[in-house]
Specification:
- Helices cover 36% and strands 23% of the residues.
- The chain has 17 helices and 20 strands.
- It has an 8-stranded antiparallel beta sheet, sandwiched between helices. A 5-stranded parallel beta sheet has the order 3-2-1-4-5.
- A hairpin with a 2-residue loop joins strand 10 and strand 11 (235-241).
- It starts with a strand and ends with a helix.
- Bound molecules: ligand MV4.
- Ligand MV4 is lined by residues 130, 155, 163-164, 199-202, 205, 207, 231, 234, 274, 276, 286-287, 437.
């Protein structure tokens, strides 16, 4: 493989291209008019503008991207995450054009894209699943029977859904009919497929996912877990690896189940198998994501494996260079997602210019981003500014390092979720490891971020600046390089 086109933008496009460069592979960026000056466009060996800013006129235009590949003699496409990454039709069209899709087969994507067919495939390997319906519910009558046998509360889920879309909780049989009708109509309008199924509702679960990697020779391994329980409205906020609740025995059992889910669809490449873990540490298979995930860096940090390189190697037909017993967890890694959103104002996107943008640095700190100081955050896409990742010898060190990195990060011009992430990292429930998917609902209130009114902030900043100047004047003799406290800190903390 000599040239790879990255069918994505932002931090993930850049992250993929870095691995390509290390492997001596040329890169092609495709970009929208909104991303003309983006770092990933500058980093690529070649770059082609494919349309106006809206994704459906640029990053989602599979046929146009394949045309670019043909013109530039591209031999592989890396889809990143989001956009076309889980589109089986696109993967098939890429293959049809004689280009390597860096990811699983269209068949595996189709099988795992539908939750019912994923569960049916997993069932053949005796993977534990939440009790509920065997397949789709065809009528309200049938649904009620299964609901009574399953028990309440229960969930009605859309087979074509994912990430919590099209999910409805039912507390009692009297509500079943109405909720089922709503679920079916939501699923039909959102996914064009009204198939729904029933699962018992697992209260207070942890969301734990297993990274798997398969090659074209039938080998598949697990790269341990990521704990993703801290999330807000199905949007992950903090991820870490390993999870502080898994014993070596449960880790092995979950890992082996994940490998079997991969085997059930002849999985090739990097994939993620999602599980729920209940209070008694029983785990249940939920779904499989057939792409590289946003949070893949924490796995890279604790295994020392570059997942993008591995994706490319297996796409070239190489055998995995390691076996399960070669893989070990080393240390601990935490990731926070830094969004241009205002956590004090219901997480409304706060789009604007990155007037000041200074990354934290130092031992154990990794920043995956796609911005430079002075750039505008486009309104057309996900408002994620960066992923801030830390690594330490143990969980406490990774967390302390993350708090230090958050304090060192200087972002002026937009509100960010950094103070919110710091709040979570300092919370007893988080540091003790005793939390579940309801963490934010249970513990977070916007007032905890203690944001001042603009007037108060200005007064505080003026006082702070005076104090800093005074202190600096005193320090000149002992430390002439003393840094003033950043404006960001004065305003936000
Ligand atoms: C569940 C559940 C409880 N019981 N299934 C939400 C996203 C989708 N992947 C599955 N989800 C859930 N499925 C049963 N039977 C609770 C959730 C859930 C959740 C799961 C993972 C992470 C965050 C979550 C937040 C709310 C609900």
């Amino acid at each position: 493989m000599n040239k790879i086109l990255v069918a994505n933008r932002g931090e993930i496009a850049l992250r993929v291209m870095r691995s390509c460069r290390e492997m001596g592979i040329k890169t092609v960026a495709v970009y929208s008019e909104a991303d003309r000056n983006a770092p990933f466009v500058k980093y690529a060996d070649e770059a082609v503008c494919i349309g106006p800013p809206p994704s459906n006129q640029s990053y989602l235009l599979g046929h146009k991207i394949i045309e670019v590949c043909k013109q530039l003699n591209v031999d592989g496409i890396h889809p990143g995450y989001g956009f076309l990454s889980e589109n089986a039709e696109f993967a098939a069209a890429v293959k049809q054009a004689g280009i390597t899709f860096i990811g699983p087969s269209p068949e595996a994507m189709d099988m795992m894209g539908d939750k019912l067919s994923a569960k049916a495939a997993a069932k053949k390997y005796n993977i534990p699943m939440v009790p509920g319906s065997e397949g789709a519910i065809d009528s309200v009558e049938e649904g009620k029977k299964i609901a009574l046998a399953t028990g309440f509360p229960l969930l009605i889920k859309a087979s074509a859904g994912g990430g919590g879309k099209g999910m409805r909780i039912v507390e009692k049989i009297e509500d079943f009919e109405e909720q089922m009708k709503l679920a079916v109509s939501e699923a039909t309008s959102a996914f064009g497929d009204g198939s729904v199924f029933i699962e018992r509702y697992v209260a207070g679960p942890r969301h734990i996912e297993i990274q798997v990697l398969g090659d074209t020779h039938g080998n598949i391994v697990y790269l341990f877990e990521r704990e993703c329980s801290v999330q807000r409205r199905h949007q992950k906020v903090i991820e870490e690896a390993p999870s502080s609740v898994l014993t070596p025995e449960i880790r092995k059992a979950m890992g082996e189940c994940a490998v079997n889910v991969g085997k059930a669809c002849n999985y090739v490449g990097a994939g993620t198998v999602e599980f729920l873990l209940d209070e008694n540490k029983n785990f249940y298979f939920l779904e499989m994501n057939t792409r590289l995930q946003v949070e893949h860096p924490v796995t890279e940090m604790i295994t020392g494996i570059d997942l993008v390189k591995e994706q490319i190697k297996v796409a070239r037909g190489e055998k995995l260079a390691f076996k399960q017993e070669d893989l070990k967890i080393n240390g601990h890694s935490v990731e926070v997602r830094v969004y241009a959103e205002d956590p004090a104002n219901n997480f409304l996107p706060d789009i604007g210019k990155l007037v000041t943008y200074k990354r934290p640095q130092g031992l154990g700190v990794r920043v995956d981003d796609g911005f430079e100081e002075g750039m505008d955050i486009p309104i057309y896409y996900d408002p994620m500014i960066s992923k801030l990742i830390t690594f330490g010898k143990d969980r406490a060190e990774a967390i302390d390092r993350m708090i230090r990195a958050i304090d060192d990060y200087e972002i002026v011009g937009v509100e960010t979720t950094l103070p919110f992430c710091k709040f979570v990292l300092q919370h007893d429930a988080f540091t003790s490891g005793n939390f579940d998917t309801h963490f934010i609902k249970h513990y977070f209130k916007p007032e905890y971020l203690n944001k001042e009114t603009p007037e108060e902030a200005e007064i505080a900043a003026l006082f702070g600046a005076r104090l800093v100047l005074k202190k600096q004047a005193q320090k000149v003799v002992s430390n002439e390089n003393a840094q003033p406290v950043s404006k960001w800190k004065l305003n936000r903390l």
